[in-house]
């Protein structure tokens, strides 16, 4: 299994090259984007983030000071804006109460940080791990629908495999390096979008063809 997990990464990296993911200029922006991207496209998230940037609101202090209703209006293009505003406020409150600053919050040990994120209402494993990996630069592997689809089609997991089981495939078979996990996940996303599509996958020309 370890050879197969490593071989997938090698093939994808050889084919696509480095991806330099996640989109975002600062850890705060990346964290915010991880919540905003729930159930929407990154295009809509970018629209929100650029709007906040233009208004000088793209900071922890600025958004934390906004009333809930005002925040919801600012993030409306991301969809589910009332729910997401509550999640963002809950995240901010947890950071303030726990550490006082984003830098100190992210400085915690990987598993401690992940558990604290998961304890926040509306923050599930994928969002928590996206924040932990991409914003805090901690070595945890993000599992999403793309990861599930690719592994299932290559008989590496069962159809009923859960998040933790899939994640453990990577955590147990690869060096615990944030940059490696960052690139690997980004490569899987690109493969799923360009070849291993939900409908009409391009199997014959896929970089993993014959794998």
From TrEMBL:
Task: Tell me where in this chain the HhH-GPD domain is found.
Answer: 36-194
A GO MF annotation of the entry reads: metal ion binding
Organism of origin is Thiovibrio frasassiensis
Q: What is this protein called?
A: Endonuclease III domain-containing protein
PANTHER family membership: A/G-SPECIFIC ADENINE GLYCOSYLASE/ENDONUCLEASE III, DNA REPAIR GLYCOSYLASE MJ1434-RELATED
* Keyword list, A-Z: 4Fe-4S, Endonuclease, Hydrolase, Iron, Iron-sulfur, Metal-binding, Nuclease
Instruction: Give a yes or no for keyword Transferase in this entry.
Output: no
GO biological process terms, semicolon-separated:
base-excision repair
